[in-house]
Structure formats: structure tokens, C-alpha cells
Amino acid sequence: xxxxxxxxxxxxxxxxxLESRARLSSRCDLVRSSTWPxxxxxxxxxxxxxxxxxxxxxxxxxxxxxxxxxxxxxxWDAARIELLNVLELTPQxxxxxxxLAETLLALAPEESRAPAEALMQLRRAVELAPEEVEFRARxxxxxxxxxxxxxxxxxxxxxxxxxxxxxxxxxxxxxxxALRRDPAAQIEALQRAVELDPERGSxxxxxxxxxLRRNDFEAAEQQLRALISRDRxxxxxxxxxxxxxxxxxxxxAEKAFAQAIAVASSDTERLEARTRLANFRxxxxxxxxxxxxxxEVLEEQPRNAALLAQLARFYALQGRAEKAEAMLGQQLERxxxxxxxxxxxSQLYAYTGRRSRAFAILDAALARSPEDExxxxxxxxxxxxxxxxxxxxxxxxxxxxxxQVLAQxxxxxxxxxxxxxxxxxxxxxxxxxxxxxxxxxxEPSTNARHLLAAAYAASGDDVRAVEQLRDALQADPSSxxxxxxxxxxxxxxxxxxxxxxxxxxxxxxxxxxxRALLLAAGAAVRLGDxxxxxxxxxxxxxxxxxxxxxxxxxxxxxxxxxxxxxxxAAARTKAGVREADPVPAEPKSLLGRLLRRDSAAPRVRAxxxxxxxxxxxxxxxxxxxxxxxxxxxxxxxxxxxxxxxxTAPESExxxxxxxxxxxxxxSIAGYALRAEFGFSSLEGCKGDxxxxxxxxxxxxxxxxxxxxxxxxxxxxxxxxxxASAHAGVARVQRVRAESMLALGSYRHAIDLASGVLAIDxxxxxxxYLEELGRSDAARDSYTRVLSVxxxxxLASNRLARSLARAADVSPAxxxxxxxxxxxxxxxxxxxxxxxxxxxxxLLRQELPRAAxxxxxxxxxxxxxxxxRSEARFHLARAQDAAGDSDAxxxxxxxxxxxxxxxxxxxxxxxxxARLGR
Length: 917
Known about the structure:
Blueprint: E1 2-5, E2 8-11, H1 21-33, H2 43-51, H3 56-72, H4 76-89, H5 94-107, H6 114-128, H7 133-145, H8 149-162, H9 167-179, H10 183-196, H11 201-213, H12 217-230, H13 234-246, H14 250-262, H15 267-283, H16 287-300, H17 305-317, H18 321-334, H19 340-351, H20 355-368, H21 373-384, H22 391-408, H23 413-425, H24 429-442, H25 446-458, H26 462-475, H27 480-492, H28 496-509, H29 514-527, H30 530-546, H31 567-575, H32 590-595, H33 602-612, H34 616-629, H35 634-644, H36 650-663, H37 668-682, H38 688-710, H39 719-735, H40 739-752, H41 755-771, H42 775-788, H43 793-805, H44 811-827, H45 832-844, H46 848-861, H47 865-881, H48 885-898, H49 905-915
């Protein structure tokens, strides 16, 4: 007989003791040969004995049979136990490892460790059966989910090498390309997957999303239309509806939502579709219809706490808080034993600013059910949001509540969600992301996705943040807050056209939204539309100066026409809705606050954009006015210094900085800015005064770190702020030629940083190592960057060039350099530097004619005479190596005539002397 107690498994023998398989077999033989008393009392004992005496093969078959039966019945935990027993008998069974992984994934929402354990089991399955394509495909998908792009790509290539028509292989290849930000390769792979299996709905959804990321709306629509023609499911229609909402095709979206509801095969699907329909109707201003849908759903599910809270908030947004209270009171009268109406009423009071009543109602709920998980987590949320004089004590109480719930329910989504908030508040962004990923896996709500997006963005992973926001907006397209957060992230990612489309939608609803107008201006600057940028800035500046929202400017496709308000705005005005504007100075969402840790007043951000437009004089005027009102506004002060440009008088800037720091001596931004300005004055500076300046700059960076250490958990420094300060110290130490100290400071900075900042600092440290002649160590740094981002263009280029310059380089390293150089050039085909690197590698491989072609590309792409002369010199080297001395002499003449100075000018003169004129 095989039994399990807790997490410990063992084989029980005939006498009930834990025994080896050999000893068990021996004792069973003894039992079979013994003469046992024929007493009725021994019947059950005999049954147990002989149950434990089956052969291992029989036991194995029974465990497999039970495991499959449990899996068919979706009894995943029981199936897991049987599969663990299978693996105890046959630990090398790859199929058993694979099946256990699949079972663990089915358990994932209930057990937070299940996905990680499943990944381990799949890796073991592939290790035992490396040729099994099915195992590889499943593992590749999990590696994608874990953001391990190189591993996922490796599995995809393995699969496709053996089966070029494997759809999973193409899907994995496509999503791996998305992770390394190669949209062309992503679309190519996903298109192939769709061609191979036109009925695979997930492939079409992924392909449509890839087209959307490139603003190819026609191609995205084609895929989604094909999806719903083949896959008439709720999920398919909801994808189609989300696309139509994004394209502002409201009538078609309404029909898509109706179809999603009509084809729903379960109550859960129907609830999801109707909730999305309600949110859509709110977004388009059909408030009466939205209310009707929510009431219909509530009638079917009267104990749905989330729905109760949503409906109550809906009424509150319209200024009908009394109606919300009456509705919840009726719920309590109808079913006095339930706790859900209490929770919704508490949330309503909190939302409408009546915190004392919110706590009182929540206390009444907890008196009825002291151990209720939702009630305790709602109390923790209220405590956490307190900004009053007792904020620190209340935050500590909230932490204690969360810890209590997690001790009882380690996988509680509500508790993990609250703990994620704490981790974000503490600046532990990566840990917060891992925690919130579990929450989204268990309950993919809009709030959970929004908070996870905040964690990703704060840790520097804007791409994943955008993914979460897009998923959240599918569920709640009415959220202005979500849309503006997405618009801001897209702008940071270099997608101004996407930002512009989202701001158009936001301004159609809220023509006076300063944040939307500033984002629209930022997008227009990036797109080169100066007139559009100035128009948006004019609106912001008029409102900032007068306090009165400007009349919307008429422009086709840019919002309401002159004299009109949008349909949504009209409906909201009629209903009495008043929604606070999430302007940069007071962003509503946590993600908004994290995106703008150094929040700027609208006039300051407008001045920054005017600088981008080349209007330095107007920017200076705005910033001077702002600094008169708020001399310690360090973002305004930074922009003012930038507006002065190279003519900035050092004495005046230093005086302003000192005055601002004196007005706010606890400001980290002030010391960081003064340190940066001081460091810029160190370049080319020599003598004793410069030594004193370097010491002052280092002291300012050290003050930043001291202030960070002194901050409480309510306002922690971000890891990026600490990393930047350590990097500043490293740069000062470089000026002083304190190389060992500088390298140590860089290492501190890199250890603290994450995302793009960590990569940039690693590359900066690597360049310094090259300066010091420590090329091997520099190459290690480049390799570390490429292990995180395999196709990073700059790291690929620098590592390729470093390998090509090495005194003793192996053929394998030269081949690696060639691959890296081509990767860099593929990522940026317009780079003269990258084309030159390819030429250097080819020349080192003794392929001078191929090298000459690469240097000719570098000349064509060069933007300055300095760059062109350098490339011409290396072209002459390649031509000389190919035996074409005449061409080399001519190219050297051009190089020396075109620029008076370039890095290799002396070497060019030497080569000309050797070749003769």
C-alpha cells in the first residue's frame, strides 16, 4: 500500500514499517508462505497485507490509472499525488514528469509555487527525452512566460529544425521575437503559424496584437474577423469587441458584446461579457444602459461583492451616493447574514471620502465574521491609503493584517495584492512584480493588472507594463486613468503614434485634461508635428494661467468639433458626473505616481516641450515665472538650466541651486541636480580649484545616499535614485583617476539598478574598462548585457569590435564577432559605426574585399566629415590588403582632405607614406 503524509512519501511494508523494495518483497513472500489463523478478525488485515504485496509493475499501472482518472475529473491535487507515486517507482519516466507538469499548471491558481515546480518538471522531461517535440513545445511556452527569451528561442529552433510545420514552434519563435523587440520577425513567425493552422485562435489573436503594436489596424482587423468566423466563442467575440472599442466603432462593438453574451457557455463567461458590456456603455456615456446591465447581473448574482462595489461606485460617480447606500441597505435587509453588502458599503464610503464611516461599517462586518479574508484585506487597504498624522502607525497595522491572512492563506490573492502594494511602496519593485504575477494568474482583475503594470514600469520593464495595461483596458475600456498610463508608457517606449491615438480618445472625453494635452504635445513633438504640439501646449498654458479650461480647438479627428462636447462628456454632464483630472502634479494611480516620481506642474512640462521645439526663450520665461513662485521646484530648475544652454552663467546657476537647496534641505533632487551641474563643469578642468569642485560634487552625491538611508518606508528612495548616485560617485572617481574605487562604485550602482538603467551602467563600466586596457573584463560586461538582452545593438557592436581588436583571438571568437556585428547592424542598419565594426571583423578574418564593402557602407551612412574620414582610412586599409594600392592611395587622399582631424589621422599619414603619393 502506498500512502502520503504531508509532503513526505514512503513505501509501507506488510507490517506497516517503511521498507526498501527488496525487503518488502522478502516479507511479502514470507506472508504468502505462512500459515495464518483462519480468524474472521484477520480478514481486513489480510486485505491490507496483500494490497501492499503487489508487484511494482502492478502498482505502477494502478497509480497511472488513478492519475488519469483524477485528471479526467479535474481533481488535480489527487492526480498530483498519484503522479508523484509513479515517479517514486520510475524516476526516469519523462512522460510522468511531463504529465505532472501539466497537472501542476492546472493547479496554478490555487498553489503559488505550482508554475515554478511545473517548469522544473518540464525541464527534467526534456532532459530525459530531448527529442520529444511535445515536451519542448510546452517548455518553450513556459520559458516565454518566465521571460527567458534565449531558452524559449532555443526550443523553438530545435522544434522547427525537426518539424518545420510545427505550429507551436512558430508561435514560440514569434513570441520570443516580441520579447527581444523584433516586430518584423514576430509577425513573420506568427503569420506562418496561422497559415499552418488557420483554426488556431490563439495564433490569430497574437498576430492581431502584433499588428496593433505597429498601428497596422487593417491587418489586425483582418485577423480578428477571421477569428470570429471560425471560433464563435465568448473569448473570440470579446477580443473583437476590444478592437472595435479601441477604434471607436461603438455600434459594431455593441453587437460584438451582444454576441459574446449570446454564445457564453457558462455563468462565468456570461458574467465576464456582461461586465465588459457595462464598462463599455459607461465609456460611451450610455449610463442608463450600463446601469441596466449591472442590475440584471446583480439579480442573478446578488452575493457578488465585486459587482456590488462596482455598482455602488457607479452611482457615486454620478453624484448619487444616496442611491448606492439605499441599494446596499436593501441588500442587507434581504439577506442580513451576508457580509458582501457591508464590504461594498465600506468601499463606497471610502470612495466618497467618508473614511470614519467606512471603518465603522467594516468593523461591523468583522464583528459578524472576524476571520473573513476580504473584510480584513479591505481594512488593510483602507489603513494603507491613510495619509494623515497616524499614517505610519496605520501602515504598520495594515502590514500586520496582511501577514496574518497570509499565514492562514498563503495563496490568498487579496493578501498577495496588498503585500504587492507594500513592496511597491518600499521600492522593492522586482519582488512586487513576482508577487503580483501570482495574483494576476489567480484573479486577472483590472486592478491586479494595473498594479502589476506599475511594478513592471518601476523596475524598468515598460514592455511588460504595456502588455498588462492593454489586457486591463480590454476589461475596462472606460478607464481614463488606464488609457493615459498606457499612453505615457507608449511614449517612453518610442511609440508616439500610439500615444497620440490614446490622447485623442482621452480628450474626446475630457477636453480639459492637462495630462492628456501634455501627452498629446509630447507625441506631436516626437512625430515632428510642431503645430499640433504648440496647439496642445497653448491649451495647457491657458488653463494654467487662468484656471479656466480652454474651449476645445476644432480639428478633424482630434476631438469634439467647435461648439460641441463629446457624447460621453454630454452624458456625464447630464448625469452630474465629476471625475477628478489625473494631472501630473497629482496623478491618481500608483502607476501614474511611479511614472512621474519627479512630478512636474503642467507649466514646467510645457516648458520642457517648448525646449524640444526649439523655443528656448519662451521656455525660459515660463520657467523663471515658475521658479519665482516655487524656488525649490528642482525639475523646473533643471529645465531652466537646460534652457540657458551653453551660455549658462555658472555663478547664477550655483546661486539658484544653493537657494533652492536651502529652501528644501531634505530634497534628494536638489543635491542630485547640483552634483550633475558641478560634474559638467569638471570636464577639461585642471588644478586645485577643480580638485575642490570634484570633492564638492562627490559630497552632493554622498548626501543623496545619506538622505535615502534616512527616509522612512512611506517615501522610500527608488533603487534607480540610489543607483544614479553611486554612478555619479563613480564618474567623479574616474576624473580623479581613482580607477579601483570607480569600478567599485559602478558595481554598487549596477547591483541596485534594473532594466534599461542597469544595462546602460554596465555598458558605461565596460567602456571605462576598455579605457583602462582591461579588455577581457570589458568583454565580460558586454556578455552580461547580452545574457539579459541577446540582441542589444550597442553591446553586440562593442563586443564584436573588442574581439576583433584582441591581440590573440581564436577563430571561434572571430566567428562570434561576425555574428554579433551582423546582429548590431540588423538592429540599426543606418549606423555608420556598426557598418565599420563589421568591416573591422571581416578585415581581421582576412576577407578584405568583404571588409571594403562594409567600410563603403560606413562612409555612405556617416553624418560628419570626421566619421567619413575615419571610415575612408579603414577602407584604404582593406583595399591595400586586397592588393589595390591605387584605390587605397585615392581613398587616403580623400580621408586627409575631408577632415583636419580624426582618430586615425596619424595612422593614415603613415599608410600614405608607405604606399607613396
